[in-house]
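@channel anyone free to eyeball this complex?
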Amino acid sequence: LSQRLSGILDGLTRRGALSATDVDTAMREVRRALLEADVALDVARSFIERVRERAVGVDVIKSVTPGQMVVKIVHDELVTTLGSDAQAIDLNAPAPVAIMMVGLQGSGKTTTTAKIAKRLTDLGKRKVLMASLDTRRPAAMEQLAVLGKQVEVDTLPIVQGQTPPQIAKRAIEAAKLGSYDVVILDTAGRITLDEAMMAEAADVKRAADPHEVLLVADALTGQDAVNLARSFDERVGLTGIVMTRVDGDGRGGAALSMRAVTGKPIKLIGTGEKMDALETFDPARIAGRILGMGDIVSLVEKAAANIDAEKAARTAERMRKGAFDLTDLREQLTQMQKLGGLGGLMGMIPGVAKMKNQLAAANLDDSLLKRQCAIIDSMTPKERRNPDILKASRKKRIAAGSGTKVEEINKLLKMHRGMADMMKAMGGAKRGPMAGLANA
Ligand code: GDP
Ligand code: MG
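replying in thread with the prediction:
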């Protein structure tokens, strides 16, 4: 744990401008996070290159370590890259406005078609017609008809034996005749990216001349996202992307990959199977998901707001000299409390949230933090400076004064001794186990 702490909240003590070394160190973490989130290799590489150039030389704000500062810069850059031009579906065209959905089989095209139709009819009271062009799976047209009933949106009557472009034309004719505002064309996907699917989509596009062509892609799409988006954009031409299953385990790296290779905006995200589980794309949310740095950005902000850097620097200096007494420990505990207690702090560190149960089992919770502070508060200054004089009678007095047990005092003293020893051993080393906190 302390390794993770020092890794993420890296304990470089000085402030000033970010050096190339600071940036490179933090970037190793970031690179790992991007790849774990399934951002395509090339995309991750060029993104990191760009941020590195931008970050070197930036001033580190007070109370934040260089590592945290870099993560914040990366986060901001991710947000900009993902959504600087956040856009809704564009309906600015003569009615009926055609929207064409493309993507692999199972990516969520049919579901998203119905979700979008529901949203458009709900909000603007627009009249929407949906048409399934999926001639490959007999149940597909029926599936759209069922969803249509559910969201109370009309679907094009099913006629057997027509090709997808023919159905598209029929849908547009029907939409004109029925004075619909919008017609959504739900195409057939394939399990893999293949030529037949591309050719079919291109044919439909020629026949229907849609105003929007939306690529529907699963958030779990990994390294393939680049090929998927590039192929569809080159062969068919996209106007936007919808990312589905953002409610699942997918880390959303696909969003960055697809955005990077096509330059097309991610317009909507699917967050569940229900018909109202469609949301406007929020770049900050996906950036957080991709980075997976817990909520390190808000940690930075909290730290900046709360930590008294002067005091912390003084404690750190004492730590380095190996003079770490109970007053210093008290200072550390207070800072942890300010950061929302161990619970709050740990929750912000990736990987640690999962350990919460173990932490609770180890009794490492906020009430413990408070009790430990109470114990130290019940000591005399002399005792705090020199814990060795704490024999049985003094401990009894302190236990009574702080409403704790002698056992707990022993545990605290043991912890303090452990920390002090470690610091001594590191003697003169730049960082103590909590230097990241102290100097943050
Ligand atoms: P299509 O083959 O591209 O038309 O995919 P479908 O629309 O038929 O969706 C395939 C499955 O994914 C269905 O079971 C949907 O309920 C499910 N699905 C679609 N979008 C989402 C989403 O955003 N979240 C979740 N959890 N499931 C989704
Ligand atoms: Mg379908």
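from a first look: Confidence is low (pLDDT under 50) at residues 1-14, 343-359, 428-440.
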